[in-house]
Amino acid sequence: MDPCGDSCIASALLLHCSIGTVYCWSIFSQEIADYIGFSKGATEWAFSFAIFFLGMSAAFLGNVVEKDIHKSSLIAAIFFAAGMAGTGYFIYYGGAHRGNLLALIGIYVCYGFIMGIGLGTGYLSPVKTLMLWFEDRKGLATGLAVAGFGAAKAIASPIMQAMLDGLGEGGIYKMFWILAGVYFVMMFVGHLLLKKPDGWHEPQKKEEGQSMWAVIKTKPITNYIGIWLMFYINITCGLALISQEKMIVKCIGLASFVGIISTISAIFNAGGRLGFSAWADKMKDRNTIYKLIFILSIAFTGIVILTSGIKNGNGNILLTVLVLGLIFVVNAGYGGGFSNVPTLLSDHYGMGNISAIHGLTLSAWAFAGLTGNQMANWIVNKFGQPIEIEHALSDGTIEMVAVNPTGYQTVLFATIALYIIALLICLIMVRPTDKAIAAKQAKKEAKAAGKA
């Protein structure tokens, strides 16, 4: 492997392992709410805004990434670190002025808007670059890049928890200030290492000045709409389940293992990003991976619905295993959807405008960030009633934990319906790639020749 390619992988991991910590929000969201004097529900919008502006900044700044990866990766480092530092300041301000609306709005702006710009540009910057370095293994390359995003939560969560426990009074805002400096250094080093191959060329010829929309229109527009929709649905369903994961684990009697299971699910998320994308390199049509993701998700969701696994899993080993299987499969498919979309797009539309097209497609992530969590929260609040279950603490004492098994079980009816719609879109709207059509035709001709 080319040493420059190795440095590009290191760059991608430095960038994505930094920005991927946005998914650590659940580790400290309650602490922020308690410290500034607002409800957890009010502060949760900061995370939704971060994901929304991630997708929208990727959509609108994709052309910047296309033209200059060094400018875009530097923008990512500055905005992500500034957003973290600003979030820390407004948490500090909120602690001194509890219940002050300015503190909450400041967190929305810093964690949501400013960090969101860093997230979107940082996510896109290394993806096309790695695809150019490893043209024959594009799936593996993008999988390595975005696996860092998925693994960030598993790596950073215990570190953040240790900082919260060890920094004493005001540890929540001190943590943000420390991490802002650490992540800026990591991302700046990643920015310096990022480099396109010398004398790189476009794998697909295109007219000079051809716009992104002109490239998309080289295929029926329904093809791109189908890719966007199935990407959106996969993220929406993933976020719906992942947002309730902690409470579902408590519901099936594993409250003492929430942290361990969260780490394992993050590993499945990262593994899905790498494994599914590397597997797709061996397929004639990468869309097959999405079919597999949706079929597996439908199968495991259906089994847990039929067995009422979430409602009946406490004390039943088989049902507990099935529910955990659902959590891990959905996490893997959620991650795999992210790593396969840039390579699927490149197979359909070539590498010429891939950063811009990929950025536009990430707008699906923006809208899913607003709908996935909120849909699940609405269903849980609308259906069923909270009940209290016993939770044994490490010191042997017992505490009561409020959960809503019926609500979490009802979320699955919504996600299985959406997964079925996504599978139908995958089968009907997304056309086979030219490579897949050519391979099928060659196979048919070879078969005909053999009969002759």
**Proportion of helical residues:** over 70%
- For the secondary structure, the number of strands is 2
CATH fold-level name of the largest domain: Growth Hormone, Chain: A
**Averaged pLDDT:** 87
CATH architecture of the largest domain: Up-down Bundle
CATH class of the largest domain: Mainly Alpha
Give the number of domains.
Answer: 2
In short:
The chain is mainly alpha-helical and 452 residues long. It has helices spanning 3-19, 25-36, 40-67, 69-96, 101-133, 138-166, 171-193, 212-216, 221-242, 245-251, 258-280, 287-307, 309-312, 317-349, 354-361, 363-382, 405-428, 434-451, and strands at 387-392, 398-403.
Can you give a write-up of this model?
The protein has 452 residues and is an all-alpha fold. It folds into 2 domains: 1-196, MFS general substrate transporter like domains (Growth Hormone, Chain: A), CATH 1.20.1250; 213-439, MFS general substrate transporter like domains (Growth Hormone, Chain: A). The chain contains 18 helices and 2 strands. A two-stranded antiparallel ribbon has the order 1-2. Helix 3 packs antiparallel against helix 4 (69-96), helix 5 packs antiparallel against helix 6 (138-166) and helix 9 (221-242) packs antiparallel against helix 14 (317-349). The two termini are 45 Å apart. The model is unreliable at 202-209 (pLDDT under 50).
